Amino acid sequence: MTDWTAFDAAAARDADARILDQFAADPDRLARMSVEAAGLYLDLSKQSWTQAAFETCLELARSAGVEAARARLFDGAAINVTEGRAVLHPALRAVRGSDFHALGEAVSAEVDAVRADMAAYATAVRSGGETGATGKPFTAIVHVGIGGSDLGPRVVWDALRPLNPQIDLRFVANIDPRDMAEALTGLDPETTLVVVVSKTFTTQETLANAEAAKAWLAAGLPEAGRDRHFIGVTAAPDKASAFGCARTFAFRDWVGGRYSLWSAVSLSCVIALGPDVFEAMLAGAAAMDDHFVSAPLERNAPVLMALAQIWNVDGLNRPARTVAPYAHALRRLPSFLQQLEMESNGKRVHRDGSPVTRKTCPVVFGEPGTNGQHAFFQQIHQGPRVVPAEFVIVAKTHADAPESPLWSNALAQAQALMLGKTTEAARAELLASGADAAEADRLATHKTFPGNRPSTAIVMDRLTPETLGALLALYEHKTFVEGVVWDINSFDQWGVELGKVLARAILKDVADGGPSASLDTSTAALLTRLM
């Protein structure tokens, strides 16, 4: 169990320390608290820790056994303790010919075979060698999934899609029929491939949407060859075949849903982007894996990211964090991180089942910069709660346009959060602008910024498949380290299940004509109103 004694003492001692003062007190602060890894540069020097607190956080990681837990992850041990499973997504992006084992079973040869099958199928679709029922090549894909079966591939496609893609890739996740209707609008069944992604092939929303897509195909295609338009990606290939998928691409149960984008779950992206692009993304993630395994804790990017969050959440009582990607192509990153982090670490018990006594995962939210600046940044600059910020900055986002107006905003926002503006400075500015003394006194507090608000910057030269892979793997390992320190299981998601069970019961009530006697009064009344 993690020893929090020194950590709590450091938090009590340094709670009021000002970030700006730490640069003067520690000339090596930037060098100590920045690191380069797998094409990314991380600057954590604007975080709220003093040098002593930084060292204390590193000792916290050591006391929690982060290094031993990391070894168990890569060794394929059953670190998902509630389900008795390995958690081996690094095996999915390892170089071909690696030797990963899940619970002692060799898995790398199988991983390599699936990757080869995906590449061959994608190449056949892209070249026109694989066609639909009427012999026409596929020009569109409808990807049906939800949760990790949707958010991972969606963030990859948005990040890497060309401006004029050869294949139009659309996503359907919401059970609201409008989502499917929008995805299908303008598409031709003869040239559309439907890829249904579900780990268990029992997910209610995915199967309902898959049925709708199947009906749409049936209305527009002859029966012979129609199944070639319907592909399954699952850990239960027998269920996918029974559902009507002509072909299935499998992954194993040691691939967690929110860690599955490296697997056949991203088949749609492999086809639409090309196998070489996908392989480059895997290589970037593998480079981050190598860094995570080999770098000492004090120079380890995922470890430092995790410790900064733990310091803010547990040390300084900051229960939320915002992520602002300053690149339109990364607009889905905050949504992806909401699932990755909040589903992984939004837990209330330790791995042994005992209640947690400390805060765990914060609320994660965000929008792309500069959009967020005109929305919630008011709160993070002047609101009473301190909300740590994360700025993901791409030096060059588009080939033909200057990016400095974009990334200069990111630098300015981080600087403003740290520096703030005193009431005296605000009053002086008002007087200099022509306000009289009374007006300056009246408005100065409104224009005061507390400052001393922490942020991290993650910088890359360009958003490439390699840097995207490294970025997503960085966040995966950060989430893992946090779970180790908090002593929680980051790899189950029982909180998702209860609502699913109750939804099935309510649907039975609908089929039976009204609420059952077991329903609470409020839910029964709402059901009656909606029927």
Structure summary:
With 531 residues, this protein is an alpha/beta fold. The protein has 22 helices and 13 strands.
Radius of gyration: 25 Å
Total strands:
13
- What fraction, in percent, of the residue positions are helical? 40-55%
Runs in which pLDDT lies below 50 for 5 or more consecutive residues are none
Report the total helices.
Answer: 22
Spatial separation of the terminal alpha carbons: 51 Å
**Mean of residue pLDDT values:** 96
Class based on secondary structure composition and strand pairing: alpha/beta
- Principal-axis shape equals globular
Q: Summarize the main sheet.
A: 6 strands, mixed
What is the topology, as strand order, of the major beta sheet?
A: 1-2-13-12-10-11
Strand content: 5-15%
Give short descriptive properties of this protein:
531 residues; alpha/beta; six-stranded mixed sheet; five-stranded parallel sheet; 12% strand
Descriptive notes:
This protein is α/β, with parallel strands linked by helices and 531 residues long. It is built from 22 helices and 13 strands. It has helices at 5-14, 19-25, 29-32, 51-64, 66-75, 89-92, 108-127, 148-160, 177-184, 204-220, 237-243, 267-273, 275-294, 301-315, 333-345, 377-382, 404-419, 423-432, 437-444, 465-486, 497-512, 521-530, and strands at residues 34-37, 40-43, 101-102, 105-106, 140-144, 168-172, 192-197, 230-234, 247-250, 320-326, 363-365, 389-396, 455-462. The strands form three sheets. A six-stranded mixed beta sheet has the order 1-2-13-12-10-11, sandwiched between helices. The protein is globular, with a radius of gyration of 25 Å. The protein starts with a helix and ends with a helix.
